[in-house]
Amino acid sequence: MMLQGCTPWPAETAARYRSDGTWRGESLGDLLRSWARRNGSATALVKGERRLSYRELDERVDRMAAGFLRQGIRPGDRVVLQLPNVPEFVIVAFALFRMGAKPVFSLASHRASEIRHLCELSGAAAYVVPGTYRGFDHVALALRMLDEVPALRQVFALDAPGGVAGVTPLAEVDAEPVEPPPADPSDVAFFLLSGGTTALPKLIPRTHDDYAYQVRTVAGICGLTSADVYLAALPVEFNFTWGCPGVIGTLASGGRVVLAEDPAPDDCFAAIERERVTFTSVVPTVAQLWLEAVEWGAADLSSLRMIQIGGARLQPELAARIEPGLGCRLQQVFGMAEGLLSMSRADDDPASVLETQGRPVSPADEVRIVDERGDDVPPGAAGELLTRGPYTLRGYYRAEEHNRRAFTADGFYRTGDVARLTSEGRLVIEGRLKDVIIRGGDKISAGEVEGHLLTHPRIARAAVVPVPDEFLGERIYAFLVSPGERPGLAELKQALHERGLAEFKLPDRVEFVTAFPLTPLGKVDKKVLAAAAMDRDAPREWAQEG
Ligand code: AMP
Predict the structure, then answer these.
(1) Is residue 198 part of a domain?
(2) Domain range for 517
(3) Which of 407, 434, 461 is the last residue of a domain?
(4) Residue that terminates a domain, selected from 150, 183, 216
(5) What phi and psi values does residue 43 have, to the nearest 5 degrees?
(6) What is the number of the ligand 1 atom nearest to the C-alpha of 310?
(7) Cα–Cα distance between 161 and 248 in angstroms, integer?
(8) Which of ligand 1's atoms lies nearest the C-alpha of 332?
(9) What atom in ligand 1 is closest to the CA of residue 432?
(10) Does the beta carbon of 413 lie inside 6 Å of ligand 1?
(11) Which residues form the AMP-dependent synthetase/ligase domain (predicted)?
(12) What's the domain count of the chain?
């Protein structure tokens, strides 16, 4: 049974996935136990000087799972998990899997606005924070959330200053292991966040069955073995880092996971050299930084056999520089936290690795490319990508109305991506229908930023669009209408910052106009605005009419 508020797969489809062995009825908490039995003393996790063997990881997870139960966290409770790339992220997540609570993976960069929303939407009973991280006091934020969100009962902190009332240090979430309540593999294991087409992120329920299948399939495609060493360069809470095959796939293969502080080349190159890292996953912006750093310094990246690049469009010119520059194989990855993953394969011809996003990872992935009416386009033509399959969600959590628009009646997820299929069945991502900006791999919902801008007393209208950027891929450009004195960019950024919006969502540029261009149906014409953002000298006739 899936948690209430989630949409299960239709019974016959689920039965088929079970009978053909796609879903094996394994829970992630039990899987860790079997990996620990197999690889006991091998190193599972590394962060700087700290190393944890599989056995230590499993034992710590057992004790923490019992500790959470003793602290009053119950199976089925939602727990917002906000930790940077530290071993505790993995320990807390697996402890919650094991005792049946459901972590909600928040980004470490989220602030009050996003955290309040995640706590309220998930009905979270608890919130796990680092302490002060990168100059931000997460404990203070957590205490504020305890005040503001009635359902939130508890806060756990990795580095809690001594004796703060209402905050339990994670180290105290520790008890003699108990037999955990039996996990239902068809139930939600954790929640990922949607890249956000709506004003606020939606929650993506991922079940034990579907995620175990995703990870197993992708680890197989990548040929992972116990000799592999994975560098988690991007945040662990990203689906890309966590399970494509990432952290979980490496643990499932008996390999070693190295957690980087951030994706900057100095830290990552040192870790690659020291730990003899064999593969990693980054967004195109990071890949570009790494290529530049290689040209500047003498890094030993000889242990790397593969780099996965995804999360945002990889320009073919940049793709062509990867293998010669980093000395390892490139794997293109197109994916989404909602499910569908498409990847190039080791035996793909070089041109298709540079120019396409490969093939869906599962033979059971169903992919359609449709026109505005929802009809299949002719072979090779571009259209919206729809998908369903054994690891693609059937509905966002507690989002009935949005789900009616985001899914077809027969359960296909409307990705909002524009794609075409080559004659060999490879996907090429051409663009996007959804109102999202992808800035260096971070997804920003235009509607969310617009909503915050509109709370400023001197902003009457706001329309946020992407503007191409050589380094970040896209930047955030805000068109604004202001009836009186116009606030400057710095003032607006400060106002959004004070509203608790994560830093990466702040506009890079603003432009004041007197009116917005409209489509024939009277909606703001964002295509016209996006074109105008690219050409600041072009006349803004539409702005003069209003
Ligand atoms: P997320 O769920 O945050 O991983 O975001 C998923 C979205 O990122 C997709 O729906 C695409 O819009 C975009 N995306 C991911 N990978 C690629 C890629 N290789 N090329 C272009 N866009 C991508």
Answers:
(1) no
(2) 436-534
(3) 434
(4) 183
(5) -80, 130
(6) 19
(7) 31
(8) 19
(9) 12
(10) no
(11) 33-397
(12) 3
Task: Tell me the pairing of strands 50-53 and 43-47.
Answer: antiparallel
pLDDT digits (tens, 9 = 90+) for 8-21: 999 999 999 999 99
How does pLDDT run across 379-429, given as a tens digit for each residue? 999 999 999 999 999 999 999 999 999 999 999 999 999 999 999 999 999
Clarify whether residues 165 and 272 are in a common domain. no
CA–CA dist 540, 515 (Å, integer): 9
Is the pLDDT confidence value at 195 over 90?
Answer: no
Counting atoms of ligand 1 from 1, which one is nearest the CA of 195?
Answer: 3
Q: Are 197 and 436 in contact (CB under 8 A)?
A: yes
Same domain, 365 and 410: yes
- Regarding the beta carbon of 186 and ligand 1, being less than 6 Å apart is answered no
What mean pLDDT do residues 517-546 have?
88
Residue nearest ligand 1's atom 20 by CA = 313
Mean pLDDT of 453-461: 95
Question: Scanning the structure block, which residue is given the tokens 């259209």?
Answer: 383
In a domain, 203, yes or no: no
Residues 474 and 329 in one domain: no
The confidence score (pLDDT) of residue 162 equals: 75
Residues 59 and 118 both lie in one domain: yes
Average pLDDT of the chain is 96
14 lies in some domain: no
Q: pLDDT at residue 45 above 70?
A: yes
Residue 220 shares a structural domain with residue 285: yes
Provide the pLDDT confidence category of residue 546 given band limits of 50, 70 and 90.
very low
C-alpha 52 – ligand 1 centre gap (Å): 32
Query: How many angstroms separate the alpha carbon of residue 311 from the centre of ligand 1?
Result: 4
CA 340 to centroid of ligand 1, rounded, Å: 10
Rounded CA separation 32/180 (Å): 14
CA of 108 to the centre of ligand 1 (A): 20
Of 530, 443, 523, 428, give the one whose Cα is nearest residue 479: 530
- Give the pTM: 0.96
